[in-house]
TrEMBL record:
Species per Swiss-Prot/TrEMBL record: Pengzhenrongella frigida
Biological-process GO terms, alphabetical: L-lyxose metabolic process; rhamnose catabolic process
Protein name: L-rhamnose isomerase
Matching InterPro entries: L-rhamnose_isomerase, Rhamnose_iso-rel, Xyl_isomerase-like_sf
Enzyme Commission designation: 5.3.1.14
Main EC class the enzyme belongs to: isomerase
Recorded GO MF terms: L-rhamnose isomerase activity; metal ion binding
Keywords on record: Isomerase, Manganese, Metal-binding
């Protein structure tokens, strides 16, 4: 069996953005384990990301994180990436590591703290001007731990005003994506806890403000594919942070914990036009590799997404629509499950070979010896940073 023609064009245009922080050491609050060959500079992170793209053809851009990826010449960094066949993608801000942000950042009750946080986002926009990046991603740790600790409602007003200032500084080609998270690091309330809150803010701002959906940021049991469908319907899904989780924001390899959930999400992405190049949905990864090797972890991740896209494209849409319209409950479900249960790995191996890529990117990368080379060359690699 080979992939149907209608699937090939979609697969050819599939691109997944990898996060720079996935290549650094990371861990939990208990321990950050080190890995030989860990990048010491942002250039080394980009070089590692280039390996993922070289072996898969799937990951042509890298998301940056400021200040973790601070460098003195971002235009030069973009050229460096370009020489390796990569573009610099989304710029992630960071208002969660400074002492000043102990009680919040863009939503803080303190005007001076809000000013500092807004100015940080202006710096991120300057970086984007130099790198040519399209998207500014904002994730806020803002929130409280105890009822009564702060004024939740006033904080929403402050947040709206802070976001307005940042939005008004966006260049004509730039966008802002606002990520939500239901808990952590705050446990009683987060200032952007859910897609509804993010949607309310970005809708008030304008058409270049959109929602970022991190698949690990929902309460257990949440129907994430419904949120995907709704945001696409509303034209407000800007980007994904893909990862997987068993319990909370585990940031494990996408598709590892619940492949069926990934399938269901991708089905709605396809259904809603989210894979169309003009659709404007950035498929990013937001993962950490605490114990596994990082580059193979990223290769596995982009392959998992590709695999689910291929399976989603195998759905017999005509049969599905016919069964749905006939209220054939089990028939419709069977069409859906047939696609999910199809083993597309041999088809994708052939697809890759047709395009001059290794049939088995994991094995080809392992055989390349790259991990041994960087382990010899790099000593004292850095920590990815907290909060990923
Ligand atoms: C935090 O939990 C988030 O998932 C963010 O996307 C975070 O900003 C990102 O991991 C980079 O810091
Ligand atoms: Zn995220
Ligand atoms: Zn997260």
């Amino acid at each position: 069996m080979s992939l149907p023609d209608r699937a090939l064009a979609r697969l050819d245009s599939l691109s997944i953005e990898v996060p720079s922080w996935a290549y650094g050491n990371s861990g939990t609050r208990f321990r950050v384990f080190s890995t030989p060959g860990t990048p010491r500079t942002v250039q080394e992170k980009i070089a590692d990301a280039a390996q993922v793209h070289a072996f898969t053809g799937l990951a042509p851009s890298v998301a940056l994180h400021i200040p973790w990826d601070t460098t003195d010449d971002y235009a030069a960094l973009a050229r460096f990436a370009g020489d390796l066949g990569l573009a610099l993608g989304t710029v992630n801000s960071n208002t969660f590591q400074d002492e000043a942000y102990k009680f919040g950042s863009l939503a803080s009750l303190d005007a001076g703290v809000r000013r500092k946080a807004i100015d940080h986002h202006f710096e991120c926009l300057d970086v984007m001007d130099a790198t040519g990046s399209r998207d500014l991603k904002i994730w806020l740790a803002d929130g409280t731990n105890y009822p009564g600790q702060s004024d939740m409602r006033r904080r929403q007003d402050h947040l709206a005003q802070s976001l307005r200032e940042i939005y008004d500084r966006l260049g004509a080609q730039q966008r802002m994506v606002l990520e939500y998270k239901f808990f952590e690091p705050s446990f009683y309330h987060m200032d952007v806890p859910d897609w509804g809150t993010s949607y309310a803010h970005v809708s008030a701002l304008g058409e270049r403000a959109l929602v970022c959906l991190d698949t690990g940021h929902h309460a257990p049991g949440t129907n994430i594919e419904f949120i995907v469908a709704q945001l696409l319907r509303l034209g407000k899904l800007g980007s994904f942070d893909f990862n997987s989780r068993f319990y909370a924001d585990d940031d494990l390899i996408v598709g590892a914990a619940d492949p069926f959930q990934l399938f269901r999400i991708i089905v709605e992405v396809v259904r809603g036009g989210g894979l169309d190049p003009a659709g404007g949905v950035a498929l990013m990864l937001d993962q950490c590799h605490n114990v596994e090797d990082k580059i193979p972890g990223q290769i596995r991740s982009v392959l998992n997404v590709q695999e689910m896209v291929a399976r989603a494209l195998l759905i017999d849409s005509d049969a599905l629509v016919a069964a749905q319209e006939a209220n054939d409950v089990l028939g419709a479900n069977a069409v859906f499950m047939d696609a999910f249960y199809t083993d597309v790995r041999p088809m994708l191996a052939a697809y890759r070979e047709d395009r001059g890529l290794p049939a088995d990117p994991m094995a080809a990368f392992a055989a390349s010896g790259y991990l041994g080379t960087i382990a010899d060359e790099r000593v004292g690699g850095t920590q990815a940073g907290w909060g990923a």
